[in-house]
Design goal:
Two copies of one chain form a homodimer.
Chain A: E1 20-26, H1 28-31, H2 38-49, E2 53-60, H3 64-75, E3 80-84, H4 94-103, E4 107-109, H5 111-124, H6 130-133, E5 137-139, E6 143-145, E7 154-159, E8 162-167, H7 171-188, E9 193-202, H8 206-212, H9 214-218, E10 224-231, E11 234-243, H10 246-264, E12 268-270, H11 276-286, E13 291-295, H12 301-307, E14 318-322, H13 325-330, H14 336-342, H15 347-360, E15 365-371, E16 386-392, E17 397-403, H16 408-429
Parallel strand pairs in A: 1-2, 1-3, 3-8, 13-14, 13-15
Antiparallel strand pairs in A: 4-5, 6-7, 7-8, 9-11, 9-12, 10-11, 15-16, 16-17
């Protein structure tokens, strides 16, 4: 997850009024960096999809004073306040006590909630204790939101024009409540529809793309925005449109994407938001072709980028990870003299590896990657980050050397992606 | 990163006064869930290590009004306010303009900062434009913090008793400024030292561990707390102590860890905070032993969990990923009849795979994993999530079948970790 950083926002979707949303995440574990707040990212995506606008994400400790303080601030600036965490018997239900105090009401027993908890326990054949029973005690002004997946119910409150929804922090329970109760409400308040269309470009840096696309971008209508989302050697170009009519908006976005593709030319490698492994897989499938990999420094990760995609068995029979010199020789037949003379990280060795794995796995294409991921393993003329790769078909072998500058994990990930991209280019070029 | 959720906080370290820290993250991309806020998690960890306390993390849009609003709230409740993002020419330096307005001061040119920017551009041989030059214009009350890694300097402000530090959002630039300027300051304000000691347990669920450790936990002195951090089949048990004397505190924590280990018995698998792949690696190194892997459904990911660790070449020569039936036969010699009679996901097939890869790679131990990661590939008697694995030494083979319930990515990750754990047990048991 490192390597992502906060980028300039090119999207300004405040052109029409939409639900001003605030997310409050309750949890010491996030404050002290033990876990990363993935709940808020998911909620943010969903709210934007539903036509709302996320203006604040606040993370606080699970203490009553902090929660009340945050509720107080939120109630003055947001239309809808989504609270996750701080529910459940081990937390002494700090969220619901804080909410009751915020609204100045008592906790009362909700018989329907208790019945639901009893049912859940009966199904598991476990006895109910007082802690479990107390989960049915909720602020008297709330609407309980049934949680089919756990014992802590969601709670909904309306105070003036502000809606508060409190949800458990467990992701699948939170998501179920969001989908059943929150998102329909946000959608109902939003007369506009929002649509995205993503185009992926490869091997051109963001700053260079911005130059090439400045004309296209300046001609976009006001309700369509372009966002640049770079990751490694790819840039996702996302067109986001807001409009009244779903079908008209989608047609308009498709038209703009076509224009964008014309400007990009063969730099564009995909017209939907998918991973590089999937893009390569689609190109292979189109040609009814297969691939195999011989990995050294990437140690299995390049194979993982292929096999993480469902359906990859259609174009991928297997790989070898040849980490040691011996295995490069015994399993892939790389001549021992070559290894000792030129080193495992060399053009001739990756050529051998790619061609041997292709024949051994009986595939149309082969990829080999050998490098120094670091921190150890560097030599005088081969510093950490030196990576040789080769891709081959039955009549062509292409090699390339990269000098990467990351830590071990980044060098492994980046080499793997660069290898897949080099192979994608060969596959696409193989038609001509 | 899914699957993590907000857990009850067992740590309450507010026993002594420490720097009350607030993190403000500026970035639309985080609000709309395009990226996950990993910067704040890193900052949180570092601040706690340095003896500070993180009380708020706030994410806002890169708009002047929002930034000023957040600064206003933060200045009233925090000792130190750490701001990331919103610096750099493409953002029109919205953060520094907002900070200048917050403090009621003008932007002025800082010649030293300009000289640094000019030097950076000269080194890259690129011309300087007005946008770059404007990065040397900073609020007149700030202390610029040199950014060796980029053109946007950090900025430090003191207002009353509150310190504000604004940093770029790019992680490595932010980290460099944190390490050079922020963390030494937080440490200097903290008379107490904070230390962690982690013990890792395997194969016992958190709720069961809590029961076993309730006696141990209740006898802990008030300045030492125990946190349960479960992930997959492991639970990290973290003892955190706060005290005046570093050496005395470390000795005390080591003593408590020894007690904890006695209660845990052979459920404890490591006494430091490392990954399962590293734990397995250490056990192999101790015995001067080696391992290899034959992967099917995990598709390279189990190998990655080994090779992501620096130094793994000492105990790991390689793997094969045999995704298709053909390759299982041609590369690993699994009898074709066996595959067609029992299926690739079967006890006999993983037995063959583990023993064959062990011999082929000439290692002391072998691991094989074959399963149905999903969503496709299920049969009537083998639903998605069925995973067979085998581990072997020269005189023993152990097999196990799991029924997992995650999505494809989770099943791949979980199978890989379960495979490493099964092998770790065999390695440890091989002494007797």
């Amino acid at each position: 997850m490192t390597g992502l950083y906060i980028r300039p926002g090119h999207i300004d979707l405040n052109q029409t009024k939409s639900m001003q949303t605030e997310i409050i995440t309750i949890g010491d574990e996030i404050l002290i960096g033990q876990i990363v707040d993935t709940n808020s990212a998911w909620i943010g995506q969903q709210i934007v999809e539903a036509g709302g606008e996320v203006r604040y994400i606040t993370t606080i400790a699970d203490k009553k004073e902090e929660i009340k303080h945050a509720l107080d601030i939120a109630s003055k600036r947001s239309d809808i306040v989504l609270i996750t965490g701080g529910l459940g018997p081990t937390k002494d239900d700090v969220t619901k006590v804080s909410m009751a105090e915020h609204f100045g009401v008592e906790l009362v027993n909700y018989p329907n909630v208790l019945a639901h908890i009893e049912k859940l326990f009966a199904r598991k054949g476990r006895p109910l204790n007082d802690g479990n029973r107390s989960q049915a005690m909720l602020p008297e002004n709330c609407t309980p939101l049934q949680n089919d997946l756990g014992t802590a119910p969601g709670m909904q409150f309306d105070e003036g024009n502000v809606r508060f929804v409190s949800m458990p922090g467990v992701p699948y329970e939170m998501k179920a409540i969001m989908e059943a109760h929150v998102l329909p409400f946000v959608r109902s308040k939003n007369s506009k529809v929002l649509r995205h269309v993503t185009t992926i470009s490869a091997n051109v840096p963001e700053s260079e793309l911005m130059k090439r696309l400045s004309g296209f971008e300046s001609e976009l209508p006001a309700h369509i925005k372009l966002a640049y989302l770079p990751h490694m050697n790819l840039v996702r170009l996302r067109l986001t449109g807001r409009g009244d009519d779903e079908i008209a908006l989608e047609a308009e976005l498709t038209g703009q994407q076509r224009k964008l593709m014309e400007v990009l030319g063969d730099v564009a490698i995909a017209t939907e938001d998918i991973k590089l492994g999937q893009i390569l897989g689609q190109e292979l499938l189109k040609r009814n072709a297969t691939m195999s990999i011989a990995e050294s420094c990437t140690g299995g990760f390049a194979s993982h980028l292929i096999t993480q995609n469902s359906g990859s068995s259609a174009y991928y029979p297997g790989s070898v990870v040849t980490y040691s010199y011996d295995i490069k020789t015994s399993v892939l037949g790389v001549p021992s003299e070559l290894l000792w003379q030129q080193g495992a990280v060399s053009e001739d060795v990756v050529k051998h590896m790619a061609n041997r794995v292709r024949r051994q796995m009986n595939t149309d294409f082969g990829l080999a990657i050998s490098g120094i991921a670091g921190p150890g393993g560097a030599t005088k003329d081969k510093p950490v980050g030196t990576v040789w790769m080769a891709v081959c078909s039955n009549n062509e072998t292409v090699t390339k050397c990269y000098h990467l500058k990351g830590n071990r994990q980044q060098n492994i990930e980046r080499s793997s992606l660069l290898g897949l991209e080099l192979l994608r280019k060969l596959v696409v070029a193989s038609d001509s």
